[in-house]
Structures are given as C-alpha cells and as structure tokens.
Amino acid sequence: MSALRLPAVVGGEVVEGPWVTADGRAGTGFATTDPYAVLPDLARRDARLSADLDALDLDDVVEHLVAFGRRLDPDDNPLLRDVVRHSAGLADVPPELVRSNLRLLPALFTREALTEVVDAVGREHLTGWPETRCADGRVGAVHAFGVRAVHVIAGNSPLIAAMTVARTGLTRGEAVVKTPSNDPLTMVALARTMIELDPDHPLARAVSVAYWKGGDAGVEARLYDPAVADRIVAWGGTGSVRHALGYLGPGLELVTFDPKNSATVLGPESFDPAVVDDVAHRLALDVGAFNQVGCVNARVVYAACGTGPDGVAAAEDLGRRVHAALQTLPPQVSTAAARPDPQLRARLRALRTGGGFHTVIGDGDGTGAVIVSHLDEPVEFADTLTGRVANIVPVDSPADAVRFLDAGTQTVGVHPPSLRRALRAVLPRAGVQRTVDLGAAVSVHPALPQDGFEPVRRLVRWAVDEHLPDGTDPLDLVFPPHRTDRPTDRQEAPA
Questions:
Q1: What pTM, to 2 d.p., does this model score?
Q2: Which domain holds residue 164?
Q3: pLDDT tens, 282-297?
Q4: Whether the Cβ atoms of residue 414 and residue 265 lie closer than 8 Å to each other
Q5: Domain for residue 96, yes or no?
Q6: Would 22 be classed as within a structural domain?
Q7: From the CB of residue 27, how many other CB atoms can be counted at a distance below 10 Å?
Q8: Cα-Cα-Cα-Cα dihedral of 243, 244, 247, 248, to 10°?
C-alpha cells in the first residue's frame, strides 16, 4: 500500500478508508478511499442542503469565500504544503511550479474577483426574480438556481480545482468532484480547508471529492444520472468526454471544456529590430509558462516574415531568440521539464537529419526547443508539442495562418495589437475562441467566456415564472389571431 493516502470528502466530512491503490499518471501510485464505499452518499441528493444553500445571502457567500481564500497560501496552509511535497511523481510539472500555481489561488477569492464572476451571471438573477415585459404582454421573472454537478476536472493546473470551488459557491450549487490522476491532491486539500473554516457551513457540505479511475462504469453509471446530477462538467482529455456522452439524456447536460491547442500569429512588424527581442520574450512566455502543459500555451507560431530564403532566415533568428528567452524565464514561471517526452525527442532528432526541411534549435531535453519549418506548414506532430517546444512556421501574410486554425484552437496570441484587432473579427469565424496580446495567453480570467461559451451561466438552472397582466384573455397568447377574429360591434357573434 502506498505511503500517500488521499481520503474522500463527502458532504463536509473527511472519509479515510477503506483504502484502495490507484496508479498516478507519472507512475507513482497512491492510496485513496474506495469510491464504492462512499458512492451511496455521493449519489444522494440532500433536500435539506439544497434548502440551506438557497437560503444563503449572496453577500454572505462572497464573504465566506473571501475568508476561505485567505487560507490558501501554500506556505501557511499545511494541506497545501503537502500538495507541493507529494506532487513529485504525480504532477506534470516540478514541485516548484506546483507551488507557483498554488500561490495564484488567493487571487481568485478576493472580493473583487468573486464579484466579477457574480456579475457574469447577473447578480439580480442570483438574488431575486427580475421581470421582463414581453411584446405580447406577458411578464417573465427569471432566477438562476444552482445545480448539482459532477465535475471531472483536469490536473494540469490547481486553478481548475479552485475555480470549481468558487463557481459552485457563488451559484449556491453542489459539486461532486472526480480528482485526476496527475493531481489527486489539490481538490482534497481545498475541500478540507473549507471544512476547517466551518464544517457546518452549507458551502463546505456542498463539495464532495473522490478519486475513481475514469471510465469505471460501476461508479459513473450511478453518478451520471439525472436523478443524481444536473450537469457533468468535463475538463481536458477526450476520454472523460467520451465516457460521459453515453449517459446523457433529458435532465442531464454535459458542459465540456474540450481538449484544445493554441497558436500565435505574428505580423511582419514583429521582426523590426527595435521590437524583435520583446516579441521573443513574450512568445517565450506563451510557449513556456508553467512548462506548456495547458491548452492555452502556444505550440505553433505563424510568422508573417515571408516564405522565401530571407523569411526562413528571419524565422530562424526569431527561433534562436525565443530559445534563449526560454532559459531566462523566472523559475516560478517555467523550468526545465520534469519528464521530457522521449518520443518528442526522437522526432526532433529525426527532423535534424530529415532532408533540410526544418531547423531545430535545442534538443527537447527539458530546456526547450524551437522547430523552424522551411515550408509554410507546421510539423505533423504539432498538437503533441510539450516541454517548452514550439514550431515557427513562416507565412507570407497573417491571413495565411487562418487555414490552419479551427474549432480546436482555443487561444491565439497576436502581435502587434493592431493585427489582433483586425483578426478578432476573422478568427472566430474559423472557430477560434480567444485572441489576446502576445505574452498574455496563459492568463485566463475566470469571469470571461472560455472555449466559446460562458461557463458560469451554464452552471445554473434558469427558472422562469410567467404571469399575464390583469384582464388579459389567455387565448390572445395561445392563438394571437384570435384577437382579430373576435366579433366586433358591427358583427354578430355566432349563436
């Protein structure tokens, strides 16, 4: 049995054992509470809890989450210190980057940040029943109720676990969270921190956490049921999405953050000697921040430097500058890869001897590498680039990049800003969901749309209460032509 034991958290209580062994994604095993032992409680809807959540004042919820956020310093919180300590051998990044990510969590729980998320839904809909008078005379009042959701979260960033807590709390919903094998630690630590703050608070009782192997039909058939949950929220790999699809039906919706890739588009101005070093620094951030484990990290760079010999030479010069800039990123932001991908390293070696169609700067040993294509096409394995490896593709015009971008492209970093403004009306029609200034790709704001939709608005049930003005004949709404068919003073009503 592994020395690392991760309990389940169910309805505000920590459940230790019975223990079963699970395999971490990086080869390190851990012991976890048997999901079948807690499955009946995970699957139980609690009417009292729902009523307690509905009774919470939204301002009190915000204050409680602010107090929770103050406990999330990884240097002061022993539970989060353990996340860092045990992350080696589990996480996709070294412990120092796990700690850096955890240091970002308190910012999600400031009063200002939480208010922005509330405003994304509409405070008036979370706190009351604002009315709208429709053209046909009816009045509709709309309220946003929290839902019960099973969250299958990704483990490439602790921010995902924290956003799950914040969004669940602000919508006064309930969450059953499946932890990922590459980070089974963070969500448990957050739930236990919430219990330490106040074990009886409805927000603590509303978050349950367990680990089970993805695709375990015995667990998922029980939880992925409209009698148990209103939403399945699936992050990351295609496996989690495919497992959920078979259970969907009336009353159970899938909210999916699909696996994506991100790219960069550079205008010809980016190669001006006065700015090219700044461009390289910004591009290194988009590629290398947090070691390129996120969907938002750039992988392919479409550079409008021209496709002739001079253009390729300019792309190679930029590649050398980017590779050098990767080495100077702060260790709190980017490090050598913990486990360089051996298949990617083999592919880089093959490109060096593959007929002169690519220039490879660096060797993918963890310090990063830049592949410069000599033709205007990315490498065939561009979607798998990781460990701070980018592919610069020379093109004649920024417009030439559009044919490579589609609904699988989440974020496109763009330079200069004038080009970003020009492309923001073009790229979404190809499927791109986000354009951003070069260098800021990995900084995702939780109150803004993500993956082409508004997540928080999908995590509520929009309830409508309608009424008719006094004296309204409902037949006028059911069949509006009835109004003109009604007998007038000049016509006799039928006997």
A1: 0.93
A2: 5-257
A3: 999 999 999 999 999 9
A4: yes
A5: yes
A6: yes
A7: 9
A8: -150
